[in-house]
Protein 1
Amino acid sequence: MKKREPRPYWNPYIVGVGIGLLIILSFLVTGRGLGAIGAFNGFLASTIHAIAPDYASSKPVFSTYLSGVDHPLRDWVLIEIAGVCIGGLLSGIVSRRFRFEVIKGPRISNVSRLIFAFSGGLLMAYAAKFTRGCTSGLALSGGSVLSPGAWLFMISVFIGGYSVAWIMKKAWN
Amino acid sequence: MAPLQFIYEIPEALLLLFALLTGIAFGIFLEKAGFGNARKLVQQFYFTDMAMFKVLFSAIVTAMLGIYWLSYFGVLDITQIYINSSYLWPQMLGGIVFGFGFVLAGLCPGTSCVAVFTGKLDGLAVFAGIFAGLILFAETESGISGFLNISSIGDITLYEILHMNYGVLSFLVAIIAIMAFWFAGRVEERFNKSSSGPAS
């Protein structure tokens, strides 16, 4: 069977306006924006709680996600991110971009790429605990309501990214 | 005035359904932008494909102006919405480290979900790294808790700090963003002439 080309990407400005409208809708309904890292934190807290409940309740980074009975939006970000996974899957299938593969530059091995990806995930998660949010929860949502810390975070992410990009050039291009 | 959640007793199931639908739409937008592909996303840092910057800032400007106008016309009560608390040093230094991580991973936590669910195995490695990072934080939190909370200025906004009118600042940010979009387009053109072009 002839392999069919993936569908073209959407114009970034159309996507941006679309995400902006979603953020507005979210503020109108719930009073807050979107998020991402909190879902990982909540998922990990519940998983660790199921395996080692004493450990989970002894660490504030996990216990805050467990004792949140008075926090009605505790599960909100988890369900929202479950939606992102479903939306990504559907769009990936429809756009013919669903494929098991390792995305990397032509000059590095799969193993190196996976080690870099793991290290990057580790640094982002650790940093996101200092910043109280990631690109979705802090930069996008906090930036929209003009939180000074959100704008400082965004500028810092770009400074951090551009300052190491030249070292990583071989890995990507 | 909205947020609706504070006016009406919205059943939790309905709120969670809203969360699911919002997430699905967010996931479709991210996938359609090409952000399940780490190599496309990371081109931002090589000036060959500025889609990340364009999406991020057009989303912020749209939401910022929408929230401003909704509050101006009395639809949305700005005092009831969540303003992310600012912790200047942790957010600045954390942001720089987050940027390092972004270039290594090529994905952020949100886009890594799209990568994983479109079959990208490097996304799975980012997932594993995120969980490892959170556990590392749990193990080191007691030693660094002093730094975590320094330079906290609460949930104040930029226009309050700068003693500016909310509408004027929103307008200025929108103007700066439009100039930045124009500049981003020029930069892309220039860097695509001198290199092999953006990733597939």
Protein 2
Amino acid sequence: MRFVLRRAGFFLLTLWVALTLNFFMPRMMPGNPAIAMMSKFRGRISGQELATLETIFGVNSGQSLPSQYVHYLGDIFTGNFGTSLYFFPSPVSQVVRGAIFWTLGLVGITTILAFLLGTGVGIVAAWRRGGLMDSVAPPVLVIASAIPYFWVGMMFILIFGVKLQWLPWSGSADITATPGWSLDYVGNVLEHAVLPAMALLITTIGTWTLIMRNNMISTLAEDYVRMARAKGLPSSRIMLDYAARNAVLPNLTGFAMSLGFVVGGAILIEYVFNYPGVGYMLLQAVENEDYPLMQALFLLITVAVLVAILLADIATAVFDPRTRSAQ
Amino acid sequence: MRFLRAIRRNGKATTGAILLAVFVLLAMFPGLFAHKDPNAEIYPRNLGPSAQHLFGTTGLGQDLYAQAVYGTRQVLVIAFAAGLFTTLIAAAVGVAAAYLGGTWDGTLNLLTDVLLVIPLFPLLIVIAAYVHNSGTVVLIAVLTFTGWSYTARQLRSQALSLRNRDFLAAAKARGERAIYIIAVEILPTMSSLLVAAFLTNALYAVLFASSLQFVGLGDPNANSWGTMLYWAQNNEALQAGYYLQALVPGAAIALLGAAFALLNYAFDEITNPALRPVRGRQRTRRLAGLSRA
């Protein structure tokens, strides 16, 4: 219980740091980007939007820094992120909601698949030490980890999209398709998801494989595994129930955390494939100097990670008794 | 010397070291390898590869090969500088926290943990968006400021395990100051961890810096691989069939990244015998089996 409470305290502290960073960053920057930007927008936008910008940058508000800060925190907790400048006149919260849907679908499912596949390959690689999988997979995966993953996406577009014309490579569905739960539309959406999902899968599997393989190698050296062998248990049982089951424990925490990174973890893949998720929207906001949207998305990404970490901590405390007494 | 011999004996390390050496040469003497001006927009646009232009030309009529060669320097400077500074800050924070203990440990450790869980790449994007057109120095500063926490935590736990060793007690009894003990007594014992951390941080610096430049948050006039990718994307080079404009800089980033990753992986194998390939062991086992039969 004390463990969980301490983690919850850490959660609140980090949340506060992220909020405060968000508040102070635009105010600390040299050359005050606010003034330049607001003069650029003046005349083009309504008084209400100008007010949103003024609160973000803290100019012309006539308020002192502390009272601006309190005002800002109040806005955040009431979910008032202002109006998006680029997707005018949609409120920021509405744009964000639309983006989350696509990201959770694409990146969420891909993350789960990558974990399952990567862990499986890691188990087999460690079990057949020196076998084909063990000698080929790790070095290949190490090199793959050095490839910028957005570039893998670009190569996929080139090969499977432009050259072979197998699959679409831009957006989440055809512009002409009418959204709805019709078979046509869902099929269209799935078709658009294949290339970005493959690019993500290929670049994320490696980490899980390497971690699992190295965990398995140390677990296989444990006495209880030797004991199981001596008892003459079938190897599949030793591999899965004795070794893999214990080796996967540290990986589970990592997996829970990676679920938090789903929201902001595929920014560049979404960018390359023009996939209208959270990451794509973040870069759109940056490119079009839509600071209200940018701040809201950054907070969303951070909060997702923090919540996932908190849940992972609680799950570890429940499933792994060793951590309960730690410190 | 022993280190060099270990590199030569390990195939992965040799490959990584040779790759890195080639890139260092390119970065130091780009003029020796490319004779055209990388910035001159004087050639026909979007040419394919030819004897004149080994990789063809860009959408603005620059020589792609010259750009790739001259682009090496900035990435390499960022990789080495950010890798080094990140590792140094991490070492200072991590070891100080572990050695000093008490309130120091609590504060520094909390700072590390907070920075560790704030998503790095979105944070980089937001900072770079406020800064506008980040050049080399800004990129190094931002990458260093945001990137040290993971290494700091690793080094802290390593230093914690050393805390009660006799040689530290001896140094303390001699009346050495904390800074001396940290720098001269503790840090050298962790040299292998520090090297591994440097290689990882350098790899991340390459990937993050190139990514930021790719989405247009770097200096669009800089000579760098990430900027080349940015222009290729802007030019819709892939869709138009000028695939070398995206292929060349991406492959360059991947090769440099692979150099760091291979060195790091080999380093792991050299310092942790349990992870080494088992070929040798297996052969002896098979021989033993044969003799028994």
